[in-house]
Write a structure and sequence with these properties.
heterotrimer; A: about 170 residues; alpha/beta; Rossmann fold; 5-stranded parallel sheet; two-stranded antiparallel sheet; 4 helices; B: about 425 residues; TIM Barrel; 6-stranded parallel sheet; 4-stranded antiparallel sheet
Chain lengths: ~170, ~425, ~325
């Protein structure tokens, strides 16, 4: 697969927003998983109707590969400007693959309190699940070889773009 | 064959009979050898004389015994050694000295010359029976590393020794300035946060000792010089005609405080390893004769006592078997003739100890060291006969190994 | 010379000293501490990183403060923490330091937090572990003799970075008993490694180590001169034993020359911060008005200390 055969990120985002527009709770809180999910959560907050506060989550402290790979070098700070207990949350991520990042995010969220519900919105679902995790809203589905990674980039003007890289250059999701 | 005292340095054969050197160069008439040692490619020199080796008996047998340490001595080519009085109990009674000499003689290895305690128990209060101790076999008197802060007691001890011509060995270190210190007061001790001993702890002590020598006329040997300024003081004292000599431990010829690295307890020594400037001065002093001789300062320490944080670790290093290769190393680095280097561990210590030894003229005791200057070996615990495996040179490769050691004409070591 | 803190891949294996620690590693520890500061503000202050790991607090020297912060930090990483006050246990009975370590290793220790009265004790332990094939066990120096207190140095650096941003522009003064201070040594190494252009030590000759300039600092005996234009003032604790060793005549005289008062602080920059590793001797090295005043960041230092220690332990345990 080459970058040329990837779907356009902006168009796919539009489709994802379409699917979410009538389905998400009016008071749903969007929590983006750094860094691709964070960008998407911000864009979705604008694109969806109503007030959807945005939070950011870094799952580095909850990953299950710490024993093998150690702590990641670049860490961001989980920032949730709202109460988790009693909230209806939509976790947002760029690529859903093994499902391990989402598992880590859910565990981390529960350390903030007990939410009313958690849904998952992803731009790309590439299959290859290693855990029983499914997205509630999916922008596009792709089949991708194991030795490749799908990467979301954000350009200076805010435009989002998908690309393909050899696996291992980016931590798997 | 090299005999520094007689300026002999060429290929020659050595003939030994009845425990003495029979001839050098040409076989005596009617000569028939019981045994021939092939020394082709090797160096034959007088057996080394080590002016300071701790044998740990009596009292510290768990660290080392006469058996192990005298075996180590001859393995290192050392045929005579002087041991300091800081045994347990200290060598302040004739009976202890006699027993030590008797034990050593019966082992038939190197000659042991005990240095007696200058004060009873080394406590620095009352002087010992130096006459009795000399009769028992002591060749000099010293406090080893024990303090003698009371200058009046020191003065009396020196006066008494001077009266009878006894030699006194003193370690120049001001006890108060050195208190609690374990490393040289400089950048390394500051970085490592180690309590430190300033260089002037040595020079202040030297100044005091030289004054007392001037006043009493006693022969003093300064043991274990370590500082640049100390060497300068020695040079001036000798120039002024004072009856003083001094030595340096082989470790201080090669190492300095930087070698402590990350708290290597094998580098915890007394006196401490000092700075590069100090080491350079000691080396220069050895070359120009200000520093008379090199000793091993052999101090076997058990593993448990070394495997401790630096300041708590017992100071000292095992060195009888390293004296020769490390002296050869120094000679190579300074581009010194082998004879000059060997002088510092044969003829010079003989002079200072007052022994007719350290040379190979016909009639001399046949104490001989035969070594291979080019044989490389790695300093490993298994390679050392000494019970002490504590040396900063562990793991390093040295060149120079003893092949045969003869004491009184008998081969006591074959390597 | 081989750096015993780093493993063959150049990763941090132990934290023994800030001296010789590459700036990138220091930077990474400080960056990693940032998210840990916010964890402290949550209800559930735990993350699961060190779950199942046994962290042994080996304190040969008493220190409730430091031991407590390490304990809190380890527990917030979900580790199992065992506290050993060695003064009252085995070593008093004559067990050697390394024997104690071997016994604890047999109890499946993963990490040792070591405080010892002798410089070099953590190095000895790290070397012993490596020589006996237990390189997977990590050692953190919680203060060894006068030599180093690297986690304190790191939390001091974190504090300075938090309030002042760029080390390359700062003038930092360290005041007091530098001679006996492991805190000062660690901070000096950290500051110089991160490019601080002007690091000053201020104190009487009796309390400054020989050749201290070799560490990269400027020496001042006059506190007023030394404080001029400082961005950061770090006050060191003066222990009462120093008066007995004839290093100083009295606490009062020390305060007169080297105590930090509101009036002396005016010589520093108007936005200067005042730090102290604690515990403070009010009226000896620092005036209460300064300790409780607007320039003081002494309390935030404590909070940052837990986050920094969490960062250190989580980086080590992952390597």
């Amino acid at each position: 697969m080459t970058t040329g055969s990837l779907p356009d990120a902006e168009i796919t985002l539009g489709r994802l927003a379409e699917k979410m527009r009538d389905a998400v709770a009016f008071d749903a809180k969007l929590i983006g998983i750094y860094s691709g999910g964070a960008w998407l959560a911000e864009r979705l907050a604008d694109m969806l109707d109503g007030e959807h506060p945005v939070g950011y989550i870094d799952v580095s402290f909850y990953r299950d590969d710490y024993a093998q790979k150690g702590l990641r070098a670049k860490l961001a700070t989980t920032t949730l400007p709202f109460e988790v207990p009693g909230s209806r949350i939509v976790l947002v991520d760029d690529v859903l693959y093994t499902g391990r990042s989402v598992r880590a995010a859910i565990n981390e969220l529960f350390d903030y309190g007990r939410p009313d519900s958690i849904e998952l919105a992803v731009l790309i679902d590439r299959g290859g699940r290693e855990l029983p995790i499914e997205a509630t809203y999916v922008g596009a589905r792709l089949a991708v070889a194991r030795d490749l990674s799908i990467v979301l980039q954000r350009h200076l003007d805010g435009r989002l773009e998908l690309s393909v890289e050899p696996a291992g250059s980016v931590a798997g999701a | 064959m090299i005999d520094p005292r007689h300026g002999f340095d060429r290929k020659a054969s050595l003939y030994v009979a009845a425990g003495k050197v029979a001839a050098v160069g040409e076989a005596p008439g009617g000569w028939h050898a019981n045994r021939v040692l092939d020394a082709a490619g090797l160096v034959v020199c007088p057996g080394l004389i080590d002016s300071s080796a701790r044998l740990r008996e009596p009292g510290f047998e768990y660290k080392a015994t006469l058996e192990s340490e005298l075996a180590a001595a001859v393995a290192g080519g050392v045929t005579s050694l002087a041991c300091p009085p800081d045994t347990d109990p200290p060598l302040d009674e004739p009976g202890l000295v006699q027993m030590l000499k008797h034990r050593a003689r019966s082992l038939n290895q190197a000659h042991v010359y005990p240095i007696g305690a200058l004060t009873v128990g080394l406590k620095g209060d009352t002087i010992t029976e130096m006459g009795e101790l000399t009769e028992a076999g002591c060749i000099a008197f010293s406090q080893a590393d024990a303090a003698l802060a009371d200058t009046q007691v020191l003065l009396r001890a020196l006066q008494y020794a001077a009266t009878f011509g006894y030699r006194v060995w003193l370690r120049p270190q001001d006890v108060h300035l050195a208190r609690g210190g374990v490393a040289h007061d400089g950048e390394v001790a500051t970085r490592l946060g180690l309590p430190a001993i300033p260089g002037f702890a040595e020079t202040i002590a030297l100044d005091a000792i030289f004054e007392l020598v001037r006043a009493t006329g006693v022969h003093v040997h300064l043991a274990r010089l370590s500082t640049h300024d100390g060497v300068a003081r020695m040079r001036a004292a000798k120039k002024a005609g004072l009856p003083v000599t001094c030595d340096v431990a082989i470790h201080h010829v090669h190492l300095c405080d930087v070698d402590i690295g990350w708290f290597n307890a094998h580098c915890h020594l007394v006196p401490p390893l000092r700075g590069t400037r100090d080491r350079a001065a000691l080396r220069a002093g050895l070359v120009d004769g200000t520093v008379d001789l090199i000793c091993s300062d052999h101090t076997p320490v058990d593993d448990d006592a070394k495997q401790l944080p630096f300041a708590e670790a017992e100071p000292g290093a095992t060195a009888l078997e390293l004296l020769l290769p490390l002296t050869l190393q120094w000679a190579k680095e300074e581009k010194l003739p082998l004879s000059a280097a060997l002088d510092r561990i044969t003829a010079a210590p003989a002079r200072v100890l007052g022994l007719d030894a350290g040379h190979l003229a016909p009639g001399a005791d046949a104490d001989v060291c035969v070594f291979d200057p080019d044989l490389h070996w790695v300093v490993a615990p298994s390679a050392l006969r000494s019970q002490g495996k504590n040396t900063p040179f562990l793991g390093l490769e040295l060149s120079g190994k003893v092949r045969y050691t003869l004491v009184g004409g008998q081969v006591v070591h074959e390597g | 010379m081989h750096n015993p803190q780093l493993n063959a891949d150049g990763e941090l294996q132990h934290l023994l000293t800030l001296e010789g620690l590459p700036a990138e590693i220091i930077g990474r520890i400080l960056d990693t501490a940032v998210p840990f500061v916010s964890i402290a503000e949550r209800d559930v202050k735990k993350v699961p990183l060190l779950r199942g790991k046994a962290v042994f607090n080996l304190f040969f020297e008493n220190s409730t403060r430091t031991r407590t912060t390490f304990e809190i930090a380890a527990k917030r990483l979900s580790a199992d923490v065992i506290n050993l006050n060695i003064g009252v246990s085995s070593t008093a009975k004559g067990e050697t330091l390394l024997d104690t370590i071997d016994n604890l290793v047999a109890m499946n220790a993963d990490m040792f937090i070591v405080r010892h009265g002798q410089s070099g004790a953590p190095h000895l332990i790290a070397q012993h572990l490596s020589a006996t094939n237990r390189s997977h066990i990590h050692v953190v120096n919680a203060g060894d003799g006068r030599h180093g207190h690297p986690t304190q140095g790191l939390l001091d650096l974190f504090t300075i970075r938090h309030y002042k941003r760029y080390f390359r522009e700062l003038t930092v003064a360290i005041v007091g008993d530098v001679l006996h201070s492991r805190v000062a040594r660690s901070l000096i190494h950290g500051l110089t490694t991160l490019g601080t252009p002007e690091v000053r030590v201020i104190g009487p000759q009796t309390l400054l180590p020989t050749a201290v300039e070799a560490l990269g600092v400027h020496v001042f005996h006059d506190m007023r001169q030394g404080l001029a234009g400082c961005d950061v003032v770090v006050m060191l604790r003066l222990q009462s034993e120093r008066m007995k060793g004839s290093l100083l005549p009295s606490a009062g005289e020390f305060f007169k020359h080297y105590g930090l008062t509101v009036e002396k602080l005016k010589l520093a920059k108007p936005d200067a911060i005042v730090m102290h590793p604690g515990p403070m001797n009010r009226g000896v090295e620092i005036d209460s008005a300064v300790a409780d005043g607007t320039h003081s960041v002494i309390l935030p230092q404590v909070t940052f200390g837990i986050a920094v220690r969490m960062a250190v332990m989580s980086i080590l345990a992952g390597n």
